[in-house]
């Protein structure tokens, strides 16, 4: 009996972890009804809604379970839970920034709202989609569990059984739990705020009987892009996956501006796509051309997407975008908005953040340390900003544990599934500053290989640490053998010595691959001015950037091909407790938490403008 339960538990576990296979991508391009807005909540630090007084999991029909609506018919009936208009939270949004009782809250919160059945045709079906919930979500509708999902930064959806959907007043409850655990991804220790809640958009998707679940449309990676550009003939390839197996059907791909109108026979639940296009305008940082692509199965309504076509590759120590060498003028970003110190959630938020990026004259962002909301890569697509995106395999997670590898792999797969059609995304990163050991090397190289297998049209990287030896900074982490770009976080002049230590530092890389600085930075409290030796003054941070930039120019190896300093904007971190300069914020931002630029912003901007001008001059 015990084993029987164990088996069921394992199967359920697998089902949760395989969520990405059922993921419906590009929800913007589909028929949907938003469930964003004001939801009611119960804060439940004792998990009373989930466990009874013996701490046994409550049964589905237990009226004390917080997914069930209390039924009060007579005066003598009573309840100890309920939802009303007094206790509400906005969705999407973190709970931490919405009410002071949540500032550092970690635990369970129940979200509730009702909705009416959307208008659907006889053969249509409704899915419930979440852009992200941090960290664990249990979803219930009209007293029945739809499913659960783990992972705070990737989307998931559940099909709503037709007989569960009422015409009005569907009672939707989500138990969100953001507690940190040693065997989760990320683990207990991070340098960012563990924002809890339904942090991204929620929607109902109204889907036909057969529909395109996922697709990948891109330039064929095998073609020589320089020759293709000369001949003005480009090979496009990819695939389309359906929700169900079809005995036989047709998938229709249209790109009107390119006069592409193709049909592909499908038997089963997927089909490969390949065609040739003439005179295409490639996507790049100067002309981020996006084409309207529409995809349909049989006579169903087409879904549309805006897709850019580009080729990113590494040749020796060069990064080539469409065959031309590119130097990455990057900046790291957390998914956080200044002024409000909250999670960024909208297109407007993305535009604010990318406004600073453009102002900096950057051409690249590292979205640290987890997949950001979908508005971020989509905005980058439209602005021509290159993107590094990452899974939260951060510092010392449980590398010995196979289940943790499975959880990390699942997040990788969900990230790739959602963003593989974004031209801006050029790097999948499998983690940050993971400490070398045999177990870690196996864990991380497995992720790197998996990422490559999922998608061969991008580069793989991971932020590594330096190895000091006899006066030289060696970049020789064994994980570098599995990545296309060798990336390093270094803080010379902040965590070790003063900034002028940069004048004598020696650097060597073991790998003949592009060498990228994925972090470097120093803290400064916005508006605090003093002599440059004074830590946390804007002058210190400026000095740090001056010395670092000089070091990059004069002492870095030939294969240095870009940087993404830490970080664009100050961000909340409960680890940062200097009562004068930090007050719960990591202050390495070039912009403070009120949106004001610090002196160092202009130092980096100067460097980026200089590179940009040189590049322009060499093209003339
Ligand atoms: C790092 C981490 C980053 C931290 C940063 C810091 O190396 O990757 O998450 O926030 O240093 O400020 O120390």
TrEMBL record:
Task: Report the SUPFAM superfamilies cross-referenced here.
Answer: (Trans)glycosidases, beta-Galactosidase/glucuronidase domain, Galactose-binding domain-like
Q: Mind listing the UniProt keywords for this protein, alphabetically?
A: Glycosidase, Hydrolase, Signal
Among its keywords, does the record have DNA-binding? Answer: no
Q: Give a yes or no for keyword Nucleus in this entry.
A: no
User: Pfam families in the record, alphabetically?
Assistant: Glyco_hydro_2 (PF00703), Glyco_hydro_2_C (PF02836), Glyco_hydro_2_N (PF02837)
Q: Superkingdom of the source?
A: Bacteria
PROSITE patterns in alphabetical order: EF_HAND_1, GLYCOSYL_HYDROL_F2_2
Q: Which residues form the Glycoside hydrolase family 2 immunoglobulin-like beta-sandwich domain?
A: 241-310
Q: Which InterPro entries does the entry mention? A: Beta-gal/glucu_dom_sf, EF_Hand_1_Ca_BS, Galactose-bd-like_sf, GH, GH2_Domain-Containing, Glyco_hydro_2, Glyco_hydro_2_AS, Glyco_hydro_2_cat
Coiled-coil regions listed in the entry: none
The Glycosyl hydrolases family 2 sugar binding domain extends over 34-208
Enumerate the PANTHER family for this protein: BETA-GALACTOSIDASE, BETA-MANNOSIDASE
Identify its protein family: Belongs to the glycosyl hydrolase 2 family.
Q: What is this protein called?
A: Beta-glucuronidase
